[in-house]
Amino acid sequence: MKFGTKAIHAGQKADPSTGAVMTPIFQTSTYKQSSPGDFKGYEYSRTGNPTRNALEQNLAALENGKFGICFGSGLAAIDAIIKLLKPGDEVISTNDLYGGTYRIFNEIFEPFGIKFHFVGMDDTDIIESLINKNTQMLWTETPTNPMLNIIDIKKLSRISKSKNLILVVDNTFATPYLQRPLDLGADIVMHSLTKYMGGHSDVVMGAAICKDNNLAQKLYDIQNSCGAVPGPQDSFLVLRGIKTLHLRMQRHCENGSIIANFLKNHPKVEDVYWPGFETHPNHEVAKSQMDGFGGIISFNLRGNKLEDAIKLVSNTQYFTLAESLGGVESLICHPSSMTHAAIPKEEREKTGVVDSLIRLSVGVEDIDDLISDLNTTFDLL
Ligand SMILES: Cc1ncc(COP(=O)(O)O)c(C=O)c1O
To answer: What does the alpha-carbon distance between residue 327 and residue 269 come to, in Å, rounded to a whole number?
Structure first.
């Protein structure tokens, strides 16, 4: 199956009992057994639920993996993946990553004895210099949130394979429509399904996807033992959202490209971060590992004044001021006071998250309305 066909069909078949075309929402916690231990594949919905399983199989197919494991949020997926480790282990992570990921690493897992190193992952020498006998995992996001840096997944996978490490890629921004990290040598793909995969800003969910049997069994074990599972209704919503992932992503990319170029030529804008620009430092890597550049764009303002950024994000009409991204509607956000407030100012400024940085999640509305919204709001500055 090609991508669009997989998005619609993988893991899903008409319900055998009724013929229902859409996967039913199996809103049940438990399943009848005819005698103890004799059941039809499902015994308890934390362990397995048919609606969730359909989604898990669909995700595995889209990422060219074998196993999908769903969790109650992206962070619950991250939590499960880090629980593959033990006290004393070390993780080398990109330093430009979602604030909540930084927080769970530092505030939750560091006290349990897992050590995290945050580095710019462009520089493989730095990564290699940090690897020691305790290093177990490389963690990266690409494109990164919110600076849209691109990390070369193949390069990281060469390091991880030679040192026997687990390479995890947070593929939330790109989605498997634009980038398939397992094909590039990653061991685990992680998603906040809350974003593009769900696509309609109506559900919070996460997933891990892998090919390796052993890793998958450990992750299923953590899913069942720790219990951060999503419900069947939410699983249904994500399955339904994914059916249009390819169509939505095409439009996100088209609109994203027009808005990125509009911002680049705007006199009140200083820098625009979007991997589709030839001048983007990692444009060549983006071209080689992605099939498009996406609809997330960050930019900062001439003069870098906090009050200008606040005015801009508070006055747009179609770009709604809100956390999150990847829904059909356009969103605008101020990372330093919202999504990345958990990262200390000095740390975030080192990676470019300055006071006037603004992040757009360009939706699939009509582009003329989006441009006119931005033009009108810039005129207020
Ligand atoms: C790149 C990235 N990873 C992980 C997460 C966490 O996902 P969730 O909010 O579904 O827990 C987010 C949320 O914004 C994100 O942007």
So the answer is: 25
